[in-house]
Amino acid sequence: xxxxxxxxxxxxxxxxxxxxxxxxxxxxxxxxxxxxxxxxxxxxxxxxxxxxxxxxxxxxxxxxxxxxxxxxxxxxxxxxxxxxxxxxxxxxxxxxxxxxxxxxxxxxxxxxxxxxxxxxxxxxxxxxxxxxxxxxxxxxxxxxxxxxxxxxxxxxxxxxxxxxxxxxxxxxxxxxxxxxxxxxxxxxxxxxxxxxxxxxxxxxxxxxxxxxxxxxxxxxxxxxxxxxxxxxxxxxxx
Length: 238
Hints:
Residues 1-21 are annotated as: Disordered. It contains 9 helices and 10 strands. It has helices at residues 3-9, 38-49, 61-71, 80-86, 99-105, 139-146, 161-165, 183-194, 210-227, and strands at 29-33, 53-58, 76-79, 89-92, 114-117, 122-125, 128-131, 151-154, 174-180, 199-203. The longest helix has 18 residues, at 210-227. 42% of the residues are buried. The chain has one domain: NAD(P)-binding Rossmann-like Domain (Rossmann fold), CATH 3.40.50.720. Helix 8 (183-194) links the parallel strand 9 (174-180) and strand 10. The termini are far apart. The strands form 2 sheets. Strands 3-2-1-4-5-8-9-10 form an 8-stranded mixed beta sheet. By secondary structure, the chain is α/β, with parallel strands linked by helices.
């Protein structure tokens, strides 16, 4: 066989996948644990307004149903366990103080689900906000340790709850840093972020990099206090 024959026989490489070719997620049911809090309620509102089916969860089902009625757009309310069971993707937006206990109690209900952790472990003192580092490394890594039967990702950390809930604002001008172990899961979360006008999901590494993403919220709080703003993030040149 000549060198030219060998070249002709060599297998052809498949073209590289376009990183912005994201899946259609419009049919997924999204649950929001902590959906009665400011961040969770804001995310639920934006996703539902974009046409996503959304269920918000709370420890008290009545409280969740009341919040869902306030949001409209077909949002439903349920207790956390029912919210987890009925959803394809579950966003964790609970307070850091209850993060571990909440997820441990829902381990079976969240099995097989794509979990999106957006919790920021923070402390506050007279100098302002500062980052806490959980034993596992980050809130997202704690979630992964507590939920071995789930596919855990991290995203939606840097969003202003004030902007999310403001019905007068049509677009949220920000990028969402998305972290995870499996490309398909990350792309699903990116696509969900992209359902919200003005928002874009950007891959930002594996879960081991979640701590610095969660910690950056402390810096944004300082920015917001100094400039009386609701700062977000944009990643350039991608």
